[in-house]
Every structure is written in structure tokens, then in C-alpha cells.
């Protein structure tokens, strides 16, 4: 599967995940060792590729598709896999379309998917595999037990990443409060947050492919992500002017998402994303604006947080601000001002305790 599959492709995977009626039908075909070629959608293009066969126009059921798969030819369903439209159809896609497949059924499936734009499924009679062609991608469905094993490995990795992220985040928060944060500490949080995001997305795909078999994995995933208060966009906003000019945050996030896993381990490479001009060394001290810490105070909406940062310019001035000074900001009344002061004080106390005890 692609590293970043499209929402459309993920929706197709959800259609054939364990527990769905389509998955049950595919399993019956696989157990029956008959093979099948199934197109999920019908329009004039599909019609132009079709020859012969029978018009069924019956409600879909796993048993019906299993019986129809005994015949030669393709089965055409509607896009939602609720209706069996045709069966025993000979599909003749454009032979000019490039394919790396060798088997006749698989070559036809890939070409039909490319030419029509509809997801096409090939069930191999000899190899006992189910292959999905959709969104320009070839994806072999793996057995649930193998997906579960990989998912559990990913959860164990996520747990280690979460532990390390908590450590580096706590260290950065304490350093920011003391005004001694270094570029190295900022980059460590940036790196660990991205590693956590990637592993989390991988687990989400396993959960999606597993369908009803992935409920326990989904619960473990949600538990590990609960309480995380790190957002790389906020982190970048805190240090967007570290080199004197404004950093393009959207571009920086895009570059961060595009680096390979091997490149993500390289702190020097990440430094070029956050400090593109190369004028900031990893041991240089930086002063945050305060976006990240303010976001952790529930009574501070994003708009008010932005106004606070705009008014006080950096975290140290914000922490030193009096209640009356905070109340001068639009949308900050006495109660909210007290809440902000108390929230920042609690974070300062907690971070310093974590750092030195």
C-alpha cells in the first residue's frame, strides 16, 4: 500500500474489510477455489468493455456472488456492492494499457481499473489471493492473523514513541519556562511527534483493513493517543521567527511529511526544515511565542491565544503578565485572565518538578 493512501482508496478498503458482506462473499469464493473478477461500478465505459454474460439485477448476497463466480467471466456490481448487475461478462479493456501482471485475470483486472476508474477485484484460483486494483494501486489483501501481528508490532512501537515523546516534550516545556530552550530540544519534539503520527496512521490502516477483527487494536491505539498535547503546527508557530524572518509553516509541514523514515532520524536534516537559512545552531537558545503552552489551557480558545501571543510577543512576557494586563486583551475577562495565570503557573510547576525530581 502507498505510504499515504487517498481517502477514496481507504474507503474502498473499508468496503471489503472483514465483517462486511462483500468480504464474506470473497471469502466464500476463495474457499471454493473458483477464482473471480469483480468490478465495483457500472457506467457507459464498463458497458463498452463488456461482451456477453447475463443481466442479473438482483440484491447482493455472499451466497449469490459465490454461485455466480462458478461461471466463467466477470461479475459487475454497483458501486456500493448492494446490487449484482451482471455476471459471466467477458471484459475487453484496451490492451495498450501497461500492466505488470502475468495472469489473464489479473491483467484484465488492472486494465479495467485503469480504464474505467472503478475498483476491480481479482480472486486468484491457483494462488488463493485477493488483489484489489484501485486508485492506480495494486493491493493484495492479507490474512487477518498477519495484519493483527503487524498491528500489534506497530502498537508496541507506538507505545515506545509515546513514552519518548512525553519525555522530550516535558523537557522542552521546562526549558521554555526557564527561557533556556535550545534548537536541539525543539527538533527532538518535532521529530518524535512526526514519528508518532506516522506510526499512528499505519495502525489506523491496519484497523481499517481488519474491520470487525480490529476492534481490540483500535482500543489500544486510542488509549495510547489519549492525552497527547503536542502539535507540530503549534511548535513551528512558536519558532517561526527564529531566524529573523517568518517561516512558511505549511511548506515546512509538507516537507516534514515528505521526508523518508531514514531522513527523519537525521536531526541535521530536520534543522534545514525549521531553520532553512542555516543560521541557527542546534545548541543555540530560542524563545518560544507561547502558542503550544497556551493551547493546553482549556479556557483559551485559539483566537484568544493568537491575540495573547500577538500582544506579549513571547512566552516569558506572557507568563509575567498581570491579571489586569491580560484583561486588556479582547475576549479576556477577569475570570479567564485568572485562569490563564493559574494554568501557566501549574504548567511551570509541573514541568520543573518533572525536570528536577
Feature tags:
8 strands; 8-stranded mixed sheet; alpha+beta; Ferritin; YojJ-like (1; 17 helices; 3 domains; 357 residues; DNA polymerase, domain 1
Structure description:
By secondary structure, the chain is α+β, with helices and mostly antiparallel strands. The chain has 3 domains: 7-141, YojJ-like (1 (3-Layer(aba) Sandwich), CATH 3.40.1700; 142-286, Ferritin, CATH 1.20.1260.110; 289-357, DNA polymerase, domain 1 (Orthogonal Bundle). 56% of the residues lie in helices and 11% in strands. The chain has helices at 7-15, 21-32, 44-49, 62-68, 104-116, 144-178, 183-210, 215-225, 232-238, 249-258, 261-264, 267-274, 291-294, 302-312, 315-320, 323-327, 334-356; strands at residues 36-40, 50-51, 54-59, 74-77, 83-91, 120-123, 130-134, 137-141. Strands 1, 2, 3, 4, 5, 6, 7 and 8 form an 8-stranded mixed sheet that branches. Strand 7 (130-134) and strand 8 (137-141) form a beta hairpin. Helix 7 (183-210) packs across helix 12 (267-274). The chain is elongated, with a radius of gyration of 27 Å. The two termini are 45 Å apart.
Amino acid at each position: 500500500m502507498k505510504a499515504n493512501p487517498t481517502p477514496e482508496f481507504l474507503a474502498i478498503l473499508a468496503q471489503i474489510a472483514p465483517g462486511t458482506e462483500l468480504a464474506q462473499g470473497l471469502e466464500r469464493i476463495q474457499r471454493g477455489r473458483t477464482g473471480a473478477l469483480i468490478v465495483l461500478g457500472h457506467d457507459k465505459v464498463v458497458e463498452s468493455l463488456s461482451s456477453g454474460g447475463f443481466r442479473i439485477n438482483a440484491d447482493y448476497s455472499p451466497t449469490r456472488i459465490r454461485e455466480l463466480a462458478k461461471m466463467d467471466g466477470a461479475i459487475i456490481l454497483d458501486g456500493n456492492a448492494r446490487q449484482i448487475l451482471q455476471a459471466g461478462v467477458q471484459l475487453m479493456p484496451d490492451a495498450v494499457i501497461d500492466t505488470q501482471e502475468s495472469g489473464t485475470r489479473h491483467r484484465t483486472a488492472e486494465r479495467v481499473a485503469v480504464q474505467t476508474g472503478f475498483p476491480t477485484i481479482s480472486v486468484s484460483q491457483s494462488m488463493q489471493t485477493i488483489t484489489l486494483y484501485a486508485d492506480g494501486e495494486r493491493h493484495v489483501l492479507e490474512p487477518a492473523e498477519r495484519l493483527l501481528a503487524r498491528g500489534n508490532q506497530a502498537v508496541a512501537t507506538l507505545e515506545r514513541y509515546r513514552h519518548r515523546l512525553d519525555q522530550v516534550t516535558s523537557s522542552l516545556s521546562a526549558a521554555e519556562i526557564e527561557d533556556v530552550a535550545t534548537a536541539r530540544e525543539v527538533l527532538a519534539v518535532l521529530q518524535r511527534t512526526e514519528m508518532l503520527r506516522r506510526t499512528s496512521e499505519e495502525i489506523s490502516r491496519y484497523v481499517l483493513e481488519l474491520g470487525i477483527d480490529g476492534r481490540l487494536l483500535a482500543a489500544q491505539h486510542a488509549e495510547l493517543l489519549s492525552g497527547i498535547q503536542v502539535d507540530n503546527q503549534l511548535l513551528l508557530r512558536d519558532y517561526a521567527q527564529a531566524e529573523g524572518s517568518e517561516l512558511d509553516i505549511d511548506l515546512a509541514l509538507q516537507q516534514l511529511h515528505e521526508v523518508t523514515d531514514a531522513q527523519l532520524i537525521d536531526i541535521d536534516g530536520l534543522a534545514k526544515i525549521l531553520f532553512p537559512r542555516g543560521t541557527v545552531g542546534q545548541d543555540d537558545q530560542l524563545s518560544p511565542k507561547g502558542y503550544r503552552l497556551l493551547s493546553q489551557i482549556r479556557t483559551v480558545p485559539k483566537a484568544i491565544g493568537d491575540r495573547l501571543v500577538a500582544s506579549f510577543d513571547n512566552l516569558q512576557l506572557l507568563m509575567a503578565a498581570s491579571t489586569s494586563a491580560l484583561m486588556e486583551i479582547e475576549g479576556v475577562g477577569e475570570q479567564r485572565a485568572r485562569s490563564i495565570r493559574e494554568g501557566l503557573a501549574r504548567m511551570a510547576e509541573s514541568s520543573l518538578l518533572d525536570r528536577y525530581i
